[in-house]
Specification:
The chain is an alpha/beta fold. About 40% of the residues lie in helices and about 15% in strands. The strands form two sheets. The protein has a seven-stranded mixed β-sheet, with helices on both faces. The chain has a five-stranded mixed β-sheet with strand order 8-9-12-11-10. It binds pyridoxal-5'-phosphate (PLP). The site of pyridoxal-5'-phosphate has 13 residues, from helix 4.
Length: about 400
Amino acid sequence: MTDTRPFDPDTLAVRAGTRRSEFNEHSEALYLTSSFVFGSAAEAASLFSGEEEGFVYSRFSNPTVRMFEERLAALEGAEDALATSSGMAAILASALAVLKAGDHVVCGAGVFGATVRLFSDVLGRFGIDTTYVRGAAEADWRAAITPRTRLLYCETPSNPLMELVDLEVFARLGRESGAVTVVDNCFCTPVLQRPLDHGVDLVIHSATKYLDGQGRVLGGAVLGRRTMIREAVLPVLRSAGPSLSPFNAWVLLKGLETLPLRMRAQSAAAQRLAEWLETQPGVQRVHFPGLASHPQRTLVARQQGGPGAVLSFEIDAASPEEARARAWRLIDHVRLMSITANLGDTRTTITHPASTTHGRLTPEARARAGIGEGLIRIAVGLESVDDLQADLARALAT
Ligand SMILES: *Cc1c(COP(=O)(O)O)cnc(C)c1O
């Protein structure tokens, strides 16, 4: 073994980014301070101008936040990272870093609901328009790109149908059209997928999900090349202020320590549950990247280091009304799983996308997106798989 061998993710998750104070604390300290004291007027001036590196004011620099940023950057294979107050703040910061009035965005249709509202309703008021592309076909993405397109945005796998976007193709489309490519890596986390390795420009995270992993705090991050992060994203954070609190950064730093363990355990549990669900009467179809029946098997193997822990399945029914009634009855009869639209927690959650996360879409738009009334999504946590299976078996039997 040579000393140039890079550390594995398990090591980076517990070691990367750590900085110790003069007290040599072993566990990372929480620097709960809004500002920092300067040794002299000259030092203050050079820190403010950026001539000298150091901590100035926690809206844009704080040691605990920096430790979280550096640890996450190490895991994602990113040159640099900036933390934000939430996942949505990270998406907003990446958009504001790249876009101006008159620009056009091409976005995957299967992205998080608030992302659609951010692009269409909020940025739409500032002269930025967005085209949504269904599915992952290269021709469809290419057809949506115009000379005004400045940003290509996607999530892979998509929620809740677990459709993948080919990241190599996505990055190439960005290079060919001169648009910046952004991937929301919330579902896979850097443990299972590193979009920057495939040539994507920016990765954003909702740290609220798997990075925390225990449903405690909100947070987010934008990661990419140092010049882009420092020159395009930092000015947005510094001037607009969607910054991560040091306390939340400290919680997230502790969350990252168990991220590889949790992702492996939760993916393995989801795999077992998905395989079992496929054999159950009354279950029409299971959507999960780890199944042999997944239509993008080879892409899954090439791009993801594991299936992830989110699956969805469709209940058999003769009509949409019956499908909804059956799906709701199943959800109302689980005892262990939490009925919530959240995911990435150690506790398993179950939700009915058509009436919650995708409830604001018109029935036609939902049908186009493939979100049927009988569809149920499960984000698998850390409970015993046998207990989860028993919970679902009983609910299915009703
Ligand atoms: C939750 C979520 C977000 C938004 O993150 P917040 O931290 O809630 O602002 C963005 N993308 C995906 C895929 C999410 O699941």
